[in-house]
From TrEMBL:
Residues 341-433 are annotated as: Disordered. This is Uncharacterized protein. Residues 344-364 have a biased composition (Basic and acidic residues). Residues 387-411 have a biased composition (Polar residues).
């Protein structure tokens, strides 16, 4: 990307960057088939042992190099002061950059490229390894030195344009062989990963990255990169999925060629069975519901009820609250015990159980946070005594202002027709007078 300027003193702008190339990717290397030697098991074990020892020595030397950098940072702090050793260490590490200025075409390189190509194409027999530019550089240097500047420019004029096109072809043209595309992607991603990890170590910047294939014939597996656990935690909280699963879904979208909208999982609010869908999964309860029945605003019969609920949420009287881990475990255990008692059949309550006042029930509800109880179905009693329902429904997730638990599990049944199941036969047509 080059920076241009229209007029002296005018506004500078960036020219359009070339991102793709229409040129066909052509082979530019000439490889001679090598004679491979098949190793025995003992030789393979010895080679693996040598690799391990070499890796250990390399890691030791790498650690020593890092200690040298720390020592240099300590020297800078002692000499200049004002900052910590970590500051000077990061300043040292920030010196290298990934992007470098683009080199122009060197005419010596053009001359060397053309001469090596001419020698290899002219006199080289079939099957003989081709000459390398490094082997012929000293020989061709003498010929290059005898040429004048005008002769050098004239000789390399056409080759310079070919070299520029060759660079563009290598950088932007599409890979036609799946193996080459895979190796290109693998090496590029390794370089990017090293630079991103170094960037995170220097500056603390968090990066999350995905890379997937776009053709079914490619070999690249779904790739994701995260600099710390914050990225994976974010995707889990925001999308309720892992980065690996999201990368797999992204690959499926790219490979399938779908162009329409990809709709994810819809977020729903459950009013019926609130305890089973919301509280048991997320530990969220509703406090001080203003109406006698917990239901969706779309199911409310009057506008006044909707306004009451909206005002209660705006003023903070009604709210959804998340239980602590201890309260959530206690709630789940009590819910399980209540469900077990319901499955085992009806049981007799002590005579003194029904004589408790509403104030006692409120105190118990306040102490047990969201303990599942068998509350009344909808309306609280006005005489000061709350009568428990005969069949426990275990809601325990929604309460009114007085602390009473609202039954959100039951649903009003439609009245059965009086003539249900009776065959009425065909209707008789009345004669028109």
């Amino acid at each position: 990307m080059t920076r241009t300027q229209d007029k002296p003193g005018g506004i500078s702008r960036y020219s359009t960057r070339t991102k793709v190339s229409v040129k066909t990717r052509l082979p530019w290397r000439h490889r001679t088939r090598r004679t491979t030697v098949k190793r025995t098991s003992a030789q393979k074990k010895l080679l693996a042992k040598q690799h391990r020892e070499n890796k250990e020595r390399y890691n030791t030397a790498l650690e020593a190099s890092f200690q040298v950098l720390i020592g240099e940072a300590r020297k800078l702090r002692e000499e200049f002061g004002g900052h910590s050793e970590q500051y000077y260490l990061e300043d040292i590490l920030q010196r290298p950059r990934v992007s470098h200025s683009r080199r122009g075409v060197n005419r010596w390189n053009v001359f060397l490229r053309e001469e090596v190509k001419r020698i290899n194409d002219a006199d080289l027999p079939e099957g003989v390894p081709r000459h390398k530019s490094s082997a012929l550089a000293s020989q061709l240097k003498a010929k290059w030195a005898t040429m004048t500047t005008e002769e050098q420019i004239e000789y390399t004029e056409d080759g310079a344009m070919e070299l520029l096109e060759h660079r563009e072809m290598k950088k932007f043209s599409v890979q036609t062989v799946p193996t080459h595309a895979f190796q290109d992607a693998r090496k590029s991603l390794e370089t990017i990963e090293r630079e991103i990890i170094a960037l995170h170590a220097r500056t603390g910047v968090e990066v999350a990255m995905f890379a997937v294939r776009t053709k079914i014939g490619d070999y690249l597996q779904p790739y994701n990169l995260k600099t710390s656990s914050r990225a994976s935690d974010f995707f889990h909280l925001a999308f309720n999925t892992t980065m690996n699963e999201l990368a797999a879904r992204f690959e499926a979208y790219c490979v399938s060629g779908a162009q329409g909208q990809c709709v994810g999982q819809q977020v729903r609010m459950f009013y019926k069975d609130f305890d089973r869908h919301i509280t048991s999964k997320y530990g969220v309860v509703c406090r001080s519901w203003p109406l006698p029945q917990f239901q969706s605003p779309a199911d409310m019969s009057t506008k006044n009820e909707v306004e009451i609920v909206m005002h209660a949420f705006k003023t903070g009287v009604t709210s959804f609250q998340r239980l602590s881990d201890a309260d959530w475990r206690a709630w789940s255990e009590a819910r399980f015990q209540a469900a077990l008692e319901e499955q085992m059949g009806p049981h007799h309550q002590p005579e003194g159980e029904e004589s408790r006042t509403s104030g006692d029930r409120d105190v118990e509800m306040e102490n047990s946070t969201s303990r599942p109880q068998a509350g009344p179905s909808i309306t609280p009693a006005t005489g000061g005594v709350l009568q428990p329902s005969q069949v426990p429904n275990i809601p325990g997730a929604v309460s009114t202002n007085s602390g009473m638990v609202i039954n959100v599990a039951s649903q009003k049944q439609r009245k059965k027709r009086s003539d249900a199941g009776i065959s009425r036969g065909p209707r008789k047509k009345s004669s028109v007078q």
